[in-house]
């Protein structure tokens, strides 16, 4: 083969390779397309809840203390049982108080006898004074004696009332209905009026308070939900409280809110929410720790799996949406709480949006995508 023939063959070969090279360069310059799965966003009614710690507290509690001094004669209840309002619990030795009452009654009888004589003398001297048969001094003394006798009677009646009260206080009654504790003082012990140590404690267990420790933000959300219910004349369940005992067992009856504290601790940002629960079986006891679920009501929102929601450098949440142009679109969203393994989102997502659920760590906004599914 001559050199001229060889050159012509090489040129022909290069011409054949040129279309192939052009195709490869075009493929290299084309944007990459990422295959992804998506989920369809559907707006739904979502129960908004918050999980907070709580502690049970007595609805009523009375420390039983003696109001008179004396020897404790009898205990008239069984420890740990239920007692009623007005039920006698203790008897303090009553004889000194019975004697004081008898003495006060005797003083009253003596005073009444003195008053009869004083009134008669006053009447007699009044008549004699009218005919100038006695001096003015004698008349004044008679009037004064009658007034003194009346005052002595009033004093004696007051002494009777005081003695009767002290005698009544020798019988110690329960001021409330509830469950009584063990006795802290035994028969034969000397007790004193209003002593520091109580004889026993009566606690009303049904109903019972549960005090919840919540944030100021939670209180604001709850107030807003309650105000919306009142304005719209609807019931969304706002304000309902459910608790789980420290054993992990759910408590059967829901509670209701009784009190929203008017101040938030500036140091912690926390406040107290007082709730009331029916407690007929005494499953909740004062001082018991519980886990509470506070219901803020229901509202329209989107439930999006937590692993689908990303955060930018400012920790703001966002999702990637499959755009109609076949590209990934960034949407910033507003999260108000979690619900299981999902976030409750109220803003940033529209009904029917296709949210990308995979390859989120490598996919960037504006990247071309190909959907592997088309959910309803």
Keywords:
Helix Hairpins; OB fold (Dihydrolipoamide Acetyltransferase, E2P); Elongation Factor Tu (Ef-tu), domain 3; alpha+beta; MdtA-like_b-barrel; four-stranded antiparallel β-sheet; MdtA-like_C; Efflux RND transporter periplasmic adaptor subunit; MdtA-like_HH; signal; 4 helices; about 375 residues
Q: What's the short story on this structure?
A:
This protein has helices at 3-29, 95-130, 136-169, 216-232, and strands spanning 33-36, 38-40, 44-57, 60-64, 70-75, 82-83, 88-92, 171-173, 178-180, 190-191, 200-204, 208-215, 241-245, 256-260, 270-277, 289-305, 310-311, 317-322, 328-332, 334-339, 342-347, 354-356, 368-371.
Write up this protein.
Residues 301-362 form the Multidrug resistance protein MdtA-like C-terminal permuted SH3 domain. Belongs to the membrane fusion protein (MFP) (TC 8.A.1) family. One of its GO terms (molecular function) is transmembrane transporter activity. Residues 60-203 form the Multidrug resistance protein MdtA-like barrel-sandwich hybrid domain. The chain has three domains: 45-57 and 206-371, Efflux pump adaptor protein, beta barrel domain (Elongation Factor Tu (Ef-tu), domain 3, Beta Barrel), CATH 2.40.30.170; 68-92 and 174-203, Beta Barrel (OB fold (Dihydrolipoamide Acetyltransferase, E2P)); 95-169, Orthogonal Bundle (Helix Hairpins), CATH 1.10.287. The protein has 376 residues and is an alpha+beta fold. Helix 2 runs antiparallel to helix 3. Strand 20 and strand 21 form a beta hairpin. The strands form six sheets. Strands 3, 12, 13, 14, 15, 16, 20 and 21 form an eight-stranded antiparallel beta sheet that branches. The protein contains four helices and 23 strands. The protein is elongated, with a radius of gyration of 45 Å. The longest helix has 36 residues, at 95-130.
């Amino acid at each position: 083969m001559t050199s001229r023939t060889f050159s012509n063959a090489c040129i022909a070969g290069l011409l054949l390779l040129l279309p192939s090279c052009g195709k490869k360069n075009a493929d290299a310059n084309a944007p990459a397309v990422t295959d992804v799965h998506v989920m369809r966003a559907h707006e739904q009614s979502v129960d908004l809840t918050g999980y907070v710690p709580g502690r049970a507290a007595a609805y009523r509690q009375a420390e039983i203390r003696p109001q008179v001094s004396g020897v404790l004669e009898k205990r008239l209840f069984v420890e740990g049982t239920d007692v009623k309002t007005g039920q006698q619990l203790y008897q303090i030795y009553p004889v000194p108080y019975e004697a004081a009452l008898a003495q006060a009654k005797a003083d009253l009888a003596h005073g009444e006898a003195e008053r009869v004589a004083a009134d008669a003398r006053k009447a007699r001297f009044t008549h004699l004074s009218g005919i100038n048969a006695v001096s003015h001094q004698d008349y004044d003394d008679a009037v004064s004696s009658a007034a003194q006798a009346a005052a002595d009677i009033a004093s004696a009646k007051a002494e009777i009332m005081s003695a009767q009260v002290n005698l009544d206080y020798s019988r110690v009654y329960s001021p409330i209905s509830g469950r009584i504790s063990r006795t802290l003082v035994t028969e034969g012990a000397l007790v004193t009026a209003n002593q520091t140590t109580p004889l026993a404690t009566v606690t009303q267990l049904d109903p019972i308070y549960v005090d919840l420790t919540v944030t100021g933000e939670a209180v604001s959300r709850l107030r807003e939900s309650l105000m919306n219910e009142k304005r719209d004349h609807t019931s969304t369940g706002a304000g309902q409280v459910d608790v789980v005992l420290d054993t992990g067992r759910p408590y059967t009856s829901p509670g209701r809110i009784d009190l929203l504290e008017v101040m938030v601790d500036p140091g912690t940002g926390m406040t107290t929410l007082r709730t009331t629960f029916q407690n007929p079986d005494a499953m909740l006891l004062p001082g018991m720790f519980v886990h509470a679920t506070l219901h803020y009501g229901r509202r329209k929102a989107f439930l999006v799996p937590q692993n689908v929601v990303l955060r930018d450098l400012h920790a703001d949440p966002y999702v990637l949406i499959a755009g109609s142009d076949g590209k990934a679109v960034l949407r910033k969203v507003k999260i108000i709480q979690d619900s299981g393994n999902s976030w409750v989102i109220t803003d940033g997502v529209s009904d029917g949006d296709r949210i990308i659920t995979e390859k989120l760590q490598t996919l960037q906004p504006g990247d071309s995508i190909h959907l592997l599914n088309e959910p309803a």
